[in-house]
Amino acid sequence: MSENDDPLADLLGSMKRHRRAAKTEDLDFSRASKPEDEKGLNPLDLLGMPALQRDLINTLSRQQQATFQDIVEKLDKPPQEIESVIDALKAAGYLREALIDGQIFYRVVFGGKVSRSGRGVPQTIWNAVDLDNTVFLQQLPLFSFLSEEDRREIALEMQPRRFQRNEVIVWQGDISDSIYFIKNGVVGMSRLLPGQSGEETRNLAYLRQGGLLGIHNLLTDRVYPAATTATALSEVDVLELKRAKLLDFLLNYDHAALALARMLAQQLVDANTRLTDSGTEKRLSLVFGVGICGATTIGSALAMTLARMTQSKTVFTEHPYPERLPEQFGFQRTGEIYQHPAGFDIALTEGTPGLPENVRTTLVLDQLSNNYTNVIIGLPGKADESVSYMLKKAHQIVVVTPPDPEAWQKTNALLADIRAYVHPERTNIQIVANRKRAEHAEMALAGQADLEIPYLPDHNPRGKHDLDQLALPLQRAASILAERLGRTNQIGIYIPTTVDVDQEVDTSGYIQETLTFLGELFGGASTTTNEARGVWNSEDAGLVSETIHIVRTLVSQIELDKHLEDVLKYMDRLKRELKQEAMALEVNQKLMLI
User: Fold this and answer.
1) Domain containing residue 387
2) pLDDT in tens, 48-78
3) DSSP letters of 551-571?
4) Who is most buried in 144, 198, 572, 580, counting CB within 10 A?
5) Cβ distance 114 to 38 under 8 Å?
6) Under 8 Å CB-to-CB from 460, ≥6 apart: which residues?
7) Are residues 493 and 480 in the same domain?
8) Maximum distance among all alpha carbons in the chain?
9) Residues 151 and 269 placed together within one structural domain of the fold
């Protein structure tokens, strides 16, 4: 180190640059949260450090991050000695590792007060992101039943941690006595394999707000190594709680133990779902009919559309009574499967006589799912235990109803029964108002529908042998349903109309670029945009009012797992080009800042 090198001055300068560049952490907002202590390096910590530790900190403070080899070459010391120094600094909380394209980089962690601040986003967005710790805990099933005082006591036991993008929270193989509650951001769970580069490694799953890291260590008396690596894919805030503290809490509150058991069971179900769906993406749509409403017509039109759109094996049937389908479609029954000229099959399987109805339901669905990629099943207007197996497996539920008030009352009751069996992030529900009869032609809708089909006089769609022969309104409705099938997750990108804090600019080009980006990534038919207005307070420019464009798209779980990291990278680039302090991303109604 030369006589001009002053590690204390370098660190102070680096901290100033860090905070100035990251107004991300220091901007005062109209409603700033109480600052929280963040573990990390302070200037006085340098005074008691060995010389080589100071030199390493000095090197990283100047260039923000470096690989192990870069550090070895810069300090000109043996690798074993550098490794020992890095381990000591990591143990003290002064260094973190970042995993970028398969390479490990080291970064200095600066300490002091971390203020959650507005960062140039509207107040309504910020309010949804910047939750007080006790308010955040109230949203978790594990703590929701507690009094505010009890939640406050637990919050005091938790240590806040903030991880920047690409920083590793937990390495696979690590043995940790901590549980991490994800307060903000997206965490990628991946498994690094021998000889595999970062570009080839895909995330196995994602955790978002409300997710838990280290939950597996609550099940046994021993603490086991982590099976996966947890990496911050955006800026991530977590609350760290020692395992022993949480176990004591669970012993004192039966409700919390039950909530934890449900969380673990749900994780197991999700893991099994990912394993079974990891190959060809299966699609199951259930079409419920309320009264005489044309549900068979819409179900078969959806089957025609999926057969053409996906070029995959598609089947349509009705349950529990498929025997009326030959007469309706005008064919002679010669077996259990009829090949429709439009490219899909009609199944006439009734299940094994003598078995309980629930068992027959599972056998029918399993048989169809084993042989077809797309399965569409028509059902009568009731949802009970006899079809609960289908409901839990469904990717889409279509409720077809006439527009009149009496039918709509039955529809609302049916929807309430359906929602008792399905999870909103795994099954999307579509309401189709079908004006099947002449008296419905001009009737006002008695409720809110996702799709509306007008009265189509003299049109018998079941006699049509090709999708193009169907009436255009029916084609459009079937196409939209097909596009939305399986897309139970929603992504929203918030695009501002100001740059450099308060300079108005036309960002329509970025809106179109985002529409194109999401459309190419996930399919454009489910991508939309709308406007919202927001007011926020900037340290530099005062009160700023602007219009924000929200570009949203519906995606399947497989698509979300595959491409969420691509969306985060796109937003990071957009943020830099638009000179934003931060940008908002919404995933399944949960907001986070990039």
Assistant:
1) 279-484
2) 889 999 999 988 988 889 999 999 999 999 9
3) EEEEE-HHHHHHHHHHHHHHH
4) 580
5) yes
6) none
7) no
8) 96
9) yes
